[in-house]
Amino acid sequence: MLVSIAWQSLKARRKTVMLTFISLLISLTVLLSVEHIRSQAKESFNRTVSGIDMIVGAPSGQLNLLLYSVFRLGSPVNEIQYQSFINLKKHKDINWAIPIALGDSHKGYRVLGTNNDYFNYYQYGDKQKLAFKVGQHFRGVFDAVLGAEVAKKLNYHVGDQIIIAHGIGSSSFSEHQLSPFVVSGILAPTGTPLDKTVHVTLAGIEAVHLPPAHLKQLIVHLDKVPLEQIHPKTITSVMLSLKSKFSIFTLQRAINQTQDDRLMAILPGVAMTELWLLMGTVENILRVISFLVLISSLIGLCTMLLASMQQRASEFTVLRIIGAGPASLFLLILIEAFLLLVLSVIAAIGVISLTLWYFNGWLSAEFGLFLSTNILNQSTFEILALIFGATLVTACLPAYEAYQQAK
Q1: Which pLDDT band holds residue 393 (cuts at 50, 70, 90)?
Q2: Most exposed: 96, 192, 217, 349, by fewest CB within 10 Å?
């Protein structure tokens, strides 16, 4: 009965209640969206690579090496010798090594040069291996394997030809038109930056940068040239898996002290921790701002309920006549506050989910963020519990005022 009375009372004061509802809706949307994006961004980054013990590249800072090798963010400062990759691959402590060559693009998507070990060993998420939606891995010099996002957005199929360009911009004046690549396979979606990557062979990367006369000669004799015999002189980085985790620090120190080439070995887990430490301050600032906005909205709710006390004197008198005691009026005010909060929470969740659904493709294409439209998780429930607790405390003041008037 009290719930019905509270609802009718809110409807009778719909103008002031609507303004309070909008204020709560905005504050809850900001708070819940910041928390959801924060947790989803961290999860999206963490699931990008799995099973990689070490990444080796040119000295440039471990965060920079991690970002451009794994997340395709930024550009390499320098490169390492291809011979360094061969030496690492032959090392007794290394299980397998994957070469990475960056620098080109296709219609705004990053081009990554590698070999077939990439598709055999690379893992993401909870040690999930790459799978082909259609087609297969490299079999020729000018084969290309597309990420799911690239194939979907550009409407490519197996057998289509693509032309890569120098640089990483969405448009380029230096396209390698003499040597188009042929799509040999399309990867299944992974929810990582792999989905928006064009994978080509190291041999292809080297071939497209040859002088035109040499390139034409290579194309003529392409069938007679083994894939492994063509490779670039330099590559961007190497991903390593070790036979034993106990040798990781010894090997890291040995790689960093290599005399033949300037190398830097980083541990992805350590670099990721450093990344989140740097982001921690920004996260905390955003959360504090969100909570301050929520507190101001709750104060507005309290003010609205207090301002209505004198106007509702006759309402309280009628309730007292029909047998409602001070405790009932106290509870009535709390129910009104919680009804308004529940409606605001439902609306905020709906707004966030619809917004994420609408902008999900743009966020993944522009920022590499793959955000779930379902914001109901443990973190969200914890925040909602905190919000309901804060609402209870805030609503106690006008509820106590009603209690006093009923005495």
Answers
A1: confident
A2: 217
The torsion angles phi and psi of 181, rounded to 5 degrees, stand at: -90, 155
Domain ranges in the chain are 2-45+279-405, 54-266
Identify whether the C-beta of residue 20 lies closer than 8 Å to the C-beta of residue 340: yes
Is the Cβ–Cβ distance between 380 and 32 less than 8 Å?
Answer: yes
In this predicted structure, the answer to whether residue 368 has a pLDDT above a threshold of 60 is: no
- The first and second tokens of residue 262, run together, are 């300037």
Q: Name the region of 51 (left: φ>0; alpha: ψ -120 to 50; beta: rest).
A: left
The CA angle 158-194-360, to the nearest 5 degrees, is 100
- Can you give the pLDDT at residue 173? 47
Q: pTM of the full predicted structure?
A: 0.70
Q: What is the pLDDT of residues 188-239, one digit of tens each?
A: 988 788 888 999 999 888 887 777 766 666 666 665 556 566 778 889 999 9
